[in-house]
Write a structure and sequence with these properties.
heterodimer, A: about 325 residues, alpha/beta, Rossmann fold, Alpha-Beta Plaits, 2 domains, six-stranded mixed sheet, four-stranded antiparallel sheet, 12 helices, about 35% helix, elongated, B: about 250 residues, mainly alpha
């Protein structure tokens, strides 16, 4: 896996009239990365994707795709891109095979290789059964898959998918996720979604965008580390009136009551007092029924990052 | 560009619209042709012709007449064919596919334009077969016939360019169709406002029909051809600009 940079975005801004949809966003995506793009509705996810694919022109900033500047050499840059918009761009009156052939021609796949490319994309997206059916007659899930097939048919270096799993049933979602994971091995993939577990399951990089600005840009491992917190939650049938017993255990730093049966115990990073707590609870006969490490969920991080009131936004606007 | 043109033609011929337009146009113009031929063969008409000092030939009387009607019918048909070309793509959000693909805006517009031209070329050729059938029973002025055919092609090419541009303006095919029809009709009759031919000046120059008349008379003048080419390039460039402006 080489680490060549496939997408470089520098100080990208986009205004719709006076409304600023994207402000000074910069990031890079390397080969082999699956970048999850998160954000509340209207945060600028789709705008960013449209800018990278050239369907919108940036107000200012630079975009480089596979080494080509999108504004200076749009054709070369676009040849390295596969894009699935929010609504798959399908011609309903075409057969799946015709449509894929057209997309291959459009993306300048050499004539001799079109047949191979069409079969490859159809195979990869599981379109074998519907290959000679009208697109308009397919179910939403299959249409979505045709949309993905369209995006990978010319084997682009960069695949950009805007909410690829919307409207699919759970089995289809799993299939599509497997597909995206496979794609991530030899392409770079940018994926926008508002389904948080999807990001956790698929991506190795996460970006959270809010009001047109990046608020988080991290690897998924970094994010998981952030999610660990040094506290345990325990449940006791008979809560002792005096909590000092817990506080004296090795490694315990704080004891806090959550409700009549639950305690939150903060501990140092070095020593995990779980075992000692269990022993203590049993010897005291406190009726221990629950003991688990507390974890901040991705959702919590997302909420923390996106729901705090933005001060600098007011300033600039 | 070619693949866009190919897809566009494919879409046209997959829908019943193209076939029914071809059929209707052929029937109407066939009727015009048949009526004209039978009128021409009537003894009264022949007698009248013989009294004129320099009588118009069979090519002017029959082929010219068919071509005049063809231009009117084509004007009615153009909006139906051009209305969906870009507006439907916009409506179905398929425009993103074309724009994110490695093709320029110019190629997108030219591809679509080419497809429509090919369709109208087929229609014009089918119509020209009718006057050509007169060759069985007589001689035709082939030069004049060719000039008329060329004129019809240029005229429809101008119609289509205007229709294509209007289609890029809106996401609603019906709005595009009505506006196109209105614009074409306006350009058709704009010289009426100028009164007689001598006074009409600018308005007369703008009129689509005046230039077409010359072609029908068999007068191939570069200034008339230039008028159409100018009109076509103007509206094609406007379409490209309009599509480009979508991104901003």
């Amino acid at each position: 896996m080489s680490s060549e940079t496939l997408i470089a975005v520098k100080n990208l801004s986009r205004y719709y009239g006076k409304f600023c949809a994207l402000r000074e966003v910069s990031f890079e995506v390397k080969r082999g990365q699956v970048l999850g793009f998160l954000g509340p509705n209207g945060a600028g996810k789709t705008t960013t994707m449209q800018l990278i694919t050239g369907t919108l022109a940036p107000s200012s900033g630079e975009i480089t795709v596979a080494g080509y500047d999108l504004l200076e050499q749009p054709l070369q840059a676009k040849a390295a891109l596969g894009y699935l918009p929010e609504q798959p761009p399908l011609y309903r009156d075409m057969l799946v095979s015709e449509y894929l052939r057209f997309c291959a021609e459009l993306h300048q796949v050499p004539r001799a290789e079109i047949h191979k490319a069409v079969n490859y994309a159809a195979g990869r997206c599981g379109l074998g059964e519907v290959f000679s059916r009208l697109i308009g007659n397919l179910s939403k899930g299959y249409q979505q898959r045709v949309g993905i097939a369209q995006a990978i048919i010319h084997n682009p270096a960069v695949v950009i998918l805007d909410e690829p799993t919307v409207g699919l049933d759970p089995i289809q979602i799993r299939e599509i996720r497997n597909l995206i994971r496979e794609l991530g091995e030899d392409h770079s993939v940018i994926l926008s979604t508002h389904i948080l577990p999807e990001v956790q399951a698929l991506c190795n990089h996460v970006q959270i965008i809010k009001n047109g600005a990046l608020v988080l840009n991290d690897t998924i491992d970094g994010l998981l580390a952030q999610m660990q917190s040094n506290s345990l939650q325990i449940g006791l049938r008979r809560l002792p009136t005096d909590l000092q017993g817990f506080a004296q255990l090795l490694g315990v730093e704080s004891v806090e009551m959550i409700d009549a049966q639950h305690l939150r115990i903060g501990h140092s990073a070095a020593i995990n007092p779980a075992e000692a707590i269990a022993e203590y609870a049993v010897t005291q006969g406190l009726g221990l029924f629950e003991l688990r490490p507390e974890q901040r969920s991705l959702e919590q991080i997302f909420v923390d990052l996106t729901c705090t009131e933005p001060e600098e936004v007011e300033e600039i606007a | 560009m070619w693949s866009i043109a190919k897809r566009e033609l494919q879409a046209l011929f997959l829908s019943p619209l193209a076939w029914s337009i071809l059929a209707v146009v052929q029937v109407i113009l066939g009727l015009v042709f048949a009526v004209r031929v039978s009128m021409f063969l009537e003894p009264d008409f022949q007698a009248q012709l013989s009294q004129v000092a320099n009588p118009p030939g069979i090519t002017s009387l029959i082929a010219g007449h068919v071509y005049v009607w063809a231009s009117i019918v084509f004007m009615l048909v153009t909006p139906l064919l051009t209305m969906r070309v870009v507006s439907e793509e916009r409506r179905n959000k398929t425009l993103a596919l074309l724009i994110s693909a490695p093709v320029s805006m110019t190629q997108i517009i030219l591809g679509k334009y080419l497809a429509l031209l090919i369709f109208f070329g087929i229609m014009a050729s089918l119509i020209s077969l009718m006057p050509l059938s007169l060759l069985v029973g007589g001689a035709l002025d082939m030069g004049q016939l060719f000039s008329g055919f060329l004129g019809l092609l240029l005229l429809t090419a101008a119609f289509v360019a205007i229709g294509l541009y209007i289609s890029t303006l809106t996401a609603h095919p019906t709005v595009a169709a009505i506006s196109t029809f209105g614009s074409l009709l306006l350009l058709w009759m704009i010289d009426w406002a100028g009164g007689s031919e001598e006074q009409s000046g600018l308005l007369g120059y703008l009129s689509l029909t005046n230039h077409y008349q010359m072609f029908l008379k068999g007068l191939l003048s570069s200034s008339d051809a230039f008028y159409y080419l100018l009109l076509i390039s103007l509206f094609l460039i406007l379409s490209i600009q309009r599509l480009d402006a979508d991104r901003i």
